[in-house]
Amino acid sequence: MEQFVFIIALLLIGIILQKMDAPVNFSKSLNFFVIYVSLPATVLIQIPKIHLDLSALGVILIPWLLLPIMAVLVIAMTKNYPTHVRAALLLVIPLGNTSFVGIPIIKSLLGSDAIGYVLMYDQFGTFLILSLYGAAVIARYETGLFHKRLILKKLLFFPPFIFLVFASIFGQMPVPVLPYIELLSSTLVPLALVSVGYSLRFGGEVDYPLLTKALMLKLFVMPFFAFGLLYGMGVEPLAFKTAVLESGMPSMITAGALAIASGFAPALSAALVGYGIIVSLVTLPLIAYLLEKLL
Fold this sequence. Notes:
Blueprint: H1 2-17, H2 26-46, H3 54-77, H4 83-92, H5 102-110, H6 115-141, H7 148-156, H8 159-170, H9 178-185, H10 188-199, H11 208-231, H12 237-247, H13 253-261, H14 266-294
Helix pairs in contact: 1-10, 2-8, 2-9, 2-10, 3-6, 3-11, 3-12, 4-6, 4-13, 4-14, 6-7, 6-12, 11-12, 11-14, 13-14
């Protein structure tokens, strides 16, 4: 409970800092350190603890199996809406905040042993989907070209992905350097959550009935489908719980930013990210409680 209060406190610190005279690109600076230092350090510590067995494979497969299901449901839900609304929801519903929000919340709910599975879901699932599917959605609904080489370059040179491959091949880091890597890894949760809080935006002309449906789809329907898909896979309980909770994470801030930058229903995209994070602070502990009772 104390850890969850700490998560809320860090988000509030970020929101309060919006009102301060913060440096230009404050949030981008935090994100830069997290992506290039904190997250790679966490990858080096956690990935060697996970063996590529049936459980790990199940965690990796779930976001890819959910993707077409969510895309079909979004298309059906937006059949009477403009294409820019459909494009926004195609970006922000399948893509969850599975690292910046996922790591601290799942660490709080399931413990540190689950972080390896979180990283697998995030890097082999969410990150790849953002790079490939996200680019395809933007290319489909926005005037422009689909830059395959640029996407491949971003994928191959993304620091956490590089360190994930490295850690998967070479395993545990040497004992003398582990304390220093752990120190760098410890910066991930506070910096990431303050950045998320600082980036939260509300307001604007929002279609609240559609927003409510979209939040239900993102925070309730996705984990429900994840539970059903995982049930017959023979995945061990910790991996099972992690994958279901990761599927129920609020919309990714980056996906919302891409939707806004592309002109895809900006107010709705911002609201889905902002309200989604707030609502998920209730839905995720509830899902974790139900999983504990069912498994």
